[in-house]
Amino acid sequence: MSLEDASLDIVPGELLAVVGENGAGKSSLMNVLYGLYHPDAGTFLMDGKPVRLRSPRDAIARGIGMVHQHFMLVPTLTVAENVVLGREPTRRGLLDLDRACDEVATTAKRFGFQLDPRARVDTLTVGSQQKVEIVKALHRGAQVLILDEPTAVLTPQESDELAQVMRGLVAQGRTVVLISHKLKEVLGVADRVAVMRRGRTVAEVRAAETTVSALASLMVGEGSRGAALTGVPAPPGAVVSDARDAQAGLAPLDAQDARGGTAASAPGVFDARREAAATAASGPLDAKSEGAGTVASGPPVLDAKDLRAKGDNSRPALQGVSLTVRAGEIVGIAGVDGNGQRELAEVLTGLRALEGGGGTLLGGPLAGLTPALAKARGVGHVPEDRLARAVVKAMTVEENVALGRHRQPPFARGPWVDFKGRRERATRLLATYDVRPPDPTVALQALSGGNQQKVVVARELDADPKLLVVVQPTRGLDIGAVAQVHARLREAKARGAGVVMVSLDLEEVLALSDRVYVLYEGRVTGHFPRKDLDERELGRRMLGAESDHG
Amino acid sequence: MLEVLHSLLFSTLDAAPALVFAALGAMLSERAGVVSVGVEGMMRTGAFCAAVAALAMPTPVAVLVGMGAGAAIAAVHGFLSIRWRSDQVVSGMALNLVAMAGGTFLLESLFGPNGTPAITQLPRWNVPGLSAVPLLGALSGHAAPTYLALTLPFLFHLLLSRTPLGLRLRAVGDKPHAVATLGLSVSALRWGAVLGGGLMAGLGGAVLSTAVLDRFEQHTPAGLGFMALAAMVFGRWTPLGAFAAALFFAFGNALRIGLASSAPWLLDLVPQGFLLALPYLLTLLVLALQGQRGHAPAALGTPYEQESR
Asked: Which is an annotated GO molecular function term of this record (chain B) (predicted)?
């Protein structure tokens, strides 16, 4: 059940933002508007008349276009082929690709996009692919354009550009519906904001008459209002590009309490959520949230030199990456998706063979590392795709907790499974990490994504890793779980582990990292200590800009 | 020497159609994202039904019956893998087993242990004058399927790369969700491709019992369906590539027959089993050299589910 009594008014010629936490039902509501999902009950009126959308075809025919969060592009086809797919121009029954290219170029130009219609989509940057998606919708005559989390994968620069595109569309009389959970962006571009919570629309406000913290409290629930308002309010007119202001304002929402002053307000916000309450109350972790500001001084746990490795497509994915990680620090790896981050994490955990380079990892050579060797030396791993790499979803929670250490006490005694020891350890971990339900005997797949992730984090941290490699640790998690995972990473750091955190979410990187490396096309294009971190400069490096002064 | 080459070419062109049709059929289905391991079973069913039908009706009509039979098996595969989203490899292998056992059972219960009675083969066409030309003359004297097999790959190429339908088929095999969000029906496209693939595989089977042989033989198609799959893979899921690979495998087949008949002394040196296995060894070798399946459609084998990405 993802939608429950949700209503939404869309006024022509405005930019309406729909905000809400992960799982609040934003995307589901939009998929209903686009005819992909069919509501069990309720009505949909267009220009006052009831309309039934049986498929996206109906929605397209009525001038509704949608840009999905995960792009709906066929990577092996060209830009033009993707845009005309389903309404292809033909000449004598054959595809008229020249005309398709002309049409696409015309549409793109009309809206000010630079796109080569003959380029294959998989050769384009993420930002350009998004433009293809927008052109695809406009080419079909979309009057109402729905964008689902469009900035989730963009650099700050690309986000700015997108904001201008959206305002431009509205200026041309089109209607834009923007789905987002990034409130600073929303307030920068939207005319009106609708707030969703647990499948319902709980408020609709004019963007000019609200603040980030007011929206935040609406998103997480009534009870939190007082607490959330103690955060620094963002100026209502804040523009998307004004990163500094917005960060301050956003902090209470995204639990990025690392930034000094706003730390105090974070636990308050989570108090409001029943799920999160336990963490806040359980205390010891939040006490350490005073921030990543301290400079690490431990010995290096990882000293990698000139790492080279191939990607799954056997093209070079790492082309000479060097990095150092010391005990007691969190090192963020920033970059646009697909620039070698995944391969780097796999190299560090022994899952991917090195083609060249090396160095030391926890006192042993990095070359020839295997997963077993990495584990033995004290590497913990929270992979990006937990269902594929971290857990077995059909096994019970306690079995999953034992995975990897299933031959050691307390999970085994000699050659036998130690059922009692395993139960005790799992039960304790579930309580400490606030996993719901705290029942070690249920199948892991019965847990929500956030709770599954907590199980993974609990298991990896329980092994007391000296180097922790985490990839996209909070993707898809709700706000309470995000806060808990972040707190656990800080806890690991405080215990003296070196943490390598790969994240596509720049906010997360900025919030947690002591140092940040930027990867672009398998090379390090930037390395910033915390004091020099600047969102816009990071964004530049993520797009491949090298340092101005060497 | 020229004579040997001529006869090798001739028997290559005689053996090729079954492989070409089946490879094209499998490719059609797989380009739309549905695994086609069931080709062997579709061929067998097509071959059996065509041979039986040819006892009662003109052979060309019987070939159409064989195509329909292949499509019927494909329909079961479509029902299992598109409608019920079952594992496509398992579904295909199950159909192969059903066709294997069913064919044998029906053959023995209807006709006894000697196989179907002989039928009238498809007529062979002699191009006047051409037969006398060295090598090129090997093109003359084949039945209709051979000439069809020499043209269809180009038509399939045109279909896939130059028509709207082809664009949609390619798209649905690589990213079905993109197709669905444009208001096109993923299942309609896949059904079309699977049934079309069944027709082609059925045709490939029918050719075996009406042109290559003159009856349904107990072991038909004896692994040719799998060889067609190999041709599709080796041809990187393209019509012309699959065509070239199928010709290559057919040549291997012809070589086996040619060697056995033109150089009987070879049988003293090499066990006959080795010669029999030659085409299959060739297939294995080629697939091993090809390496990883880098050219397969991205969504191959993945059932389409609307609410997942």
From this structure: transmembrane transporter activity
Q: Give B-chain residues touching A56 at CB under 8 angstroms.
A: 180-183
Nearest CA in chain B to A97: B162
Calculate mean pLDDT across residues A116-144.
89
Q: Could B309 and A94 be called an inter-chain contact, meaning their C-beta atoms sit closer than 8 Å?
A: no
Assess whether A330 and A363 both reside in one domain: yes
* 8 A C-beta contact, residue A82 and residue A95: no
Contact (CB<8Å) A37/B307: yes
Task: State which residues form the domain around A349.
Answer: 292-378+465-550
Fold designation for B2-120+154-290: ABC transporter involved in vitamin B12 uptake, BtuC (1.10.3470)
Q: What span, in angstroms and rounded, lies between the C-alpha atoms of A70 and A148?
A: 9
Mean pLDDT for the stretch of residues B130-147? 84
| Region of A320 on the Ramachandran plot (φ > 0 left; ψ -120 to 50 alpha; else beta) | left
Q: Which of A185, A210, A235 is the last residue of a domain?
A: A210
- Please, what's the b/e burial string for A145-171 (b: 16 or more CB within 10 A of its CB; e: otherwise)? bbbbbbbbbbbbbbbbbbbebbeebbe
Say which of B163, B170, B179 has its CB closest to residue A93: B163
Pairwise CA distance, residues B209 & B73, whole Å: 18
In this prediction, residue A44 carries a pLDDT of 82
* Peptide bond before residue A465 is cis, with ω within 30 degrees of 0: no
pLDDT at B252: 85
Which residue of chain A comes nearest to B305, CA vs CA?
A: A36
A-chain CB neighbours of B164 within 8 Å are 88, 90, 95
Average pLDDT over residues A507-531: 91
Q: At A338, phi and psi to the nearest 5?
A: 85, 20
Tokens of A187: 């307030």
Domain boundary residue, one of A176, A195, A210: A210
CATH of the domain at A550: 3.40.50.300
Decide if A98 touches B, using CB distance below 8 A: no
User: Rounded mean pLDDT of B126-136?
Assistant: 79
Which of the four pLDDT bands, split at 50, 70 and 90, describes residue A1?
A: very low
Regarding whether A119 and A256 lie in a shared domain, the answer is: no
Question: Chain B residues within 8 A (CB-CB) of chain A?
Answer: 158, 162-164, 166-168, 170-171, 174-175, 177-185, 294, 298, 306-307, 309
What is this model's ipTM? 0.87
Verify that A123 and A147 share a domain, yes or no. Answer: yes
**pLDDT at residue A254 greater than cutoff 60:** no
Whether residues A443 and A519 share a domain: the answer is no
Query: What value, to the nearest 5°, has the Cα angle with vertex A347 and ends A343 and A351?
Result: 95
Query: pLDDT per residue over B28-76, tens digit each?
Result: 999 999 999 999 999 999 999 999 999 999 999 999 999 999 999 999 9
Distance from CA of A214 to the nearest CA of B (A): 33
- Which residues of chain B are within 8 Å of residue A36 when distances are taken between CB atoms? 180-181, 306
Across A460-478, average pLDDT: 88
The average pLDDT across A2-10 equals 79
Q: Hey, are the CB atoms on B170 and A56 less than 8 Å from each other?
A: no
Given pLDDT bands bounded at 50, 70 and 90, which one contains residue A493? very high
Q: What is the mean pLDDT of chain A?
A: 80
H-type alpha helices, A390-473: 397-402, 419-432, 449-462
- Calculate how close chain A gets to B291, using CA atoms only, in Å: 12
pLDDT (0 to 100) of residue A287:
34
A109 touches B: beta carbon within 8 Å:
no
Cross-strand pairs, A46: A49
pLDDT, greater one: B293 or B242: B242
Q: Is there a domain that residue A8 lies in?
A: no
